Sequence to fold (267 residues):
Amino acid sequence: MSIPFLSVKPRAIKLKVSPRFPAQVIGRAGIDVTKQNGDYFFDLDYNDFPTIGAVPAQATNALIYNPATGQYAQLPISLLGGGIPDAPSDGTIYGRKNAAWVAAGSTVYIRDTPPVGAADNSLWWESDTGALYVRYNDGNTVQWVAVAPGNSTDNSAWTQTMPAVTATSGAFTSASCAFRYKLIGKSCLFSFSVSMPNAGTAAGNIQFDMPVTPIGTNAGGGKEIAAVGYQCNWQTFGTQMIIAKYDNTTIIGSGRTVVATGVFEIA
Fold:
């Protein structure tokens, strides 16, 4: 600047200044200065601003550009997610709803028995069979419903038992039973062979006890394979297997062998 005139009085100093502005205009970080036709323009340059990975703890507002108005405005950090606490660390998937964390997914349990106290819509993978269940609440009852079958490549051996064979009336002089079964999840696959070398005084139905308990009453068919070739039927009653001829008369006879296979649900 220049000072062309200076006058001094006893009690005051007066300066007459003829400024030449701006002698030099320099933009700081993030501010670009341009001159056009004698006018100076100041613009924000976001490329000059550093990038940070988290909202600073003391930050309250963020500067944003509103394209609708062509202006910059301050936005509360809370609207950008700042200050939201972490979700609970309990293995459950959470999401945000009404400004709070709420369960947003199904809890998955991996064990060989049904989990106790599981919430509705939980998933249970039965580790010993590979079957997948969902805990379903229909408003009246709550139960585990199978949504995927178990492991179909299970190569474990079947179990064989030799239960005693009886008849509705009389007694066998000589009879034996081989009952084989395999448990897959809640299903029991089975086969049996009842051999009667000497039927004695036995009459009516063939009967023997099984080592597993079916749910409800089950029935199926089989065949006599050693002598007469009759078709037969079988029916469960509790743990008892009951076998008769196809017309519900007796299929008992010396020298006969009855075989059958089937499957039923267990508890």
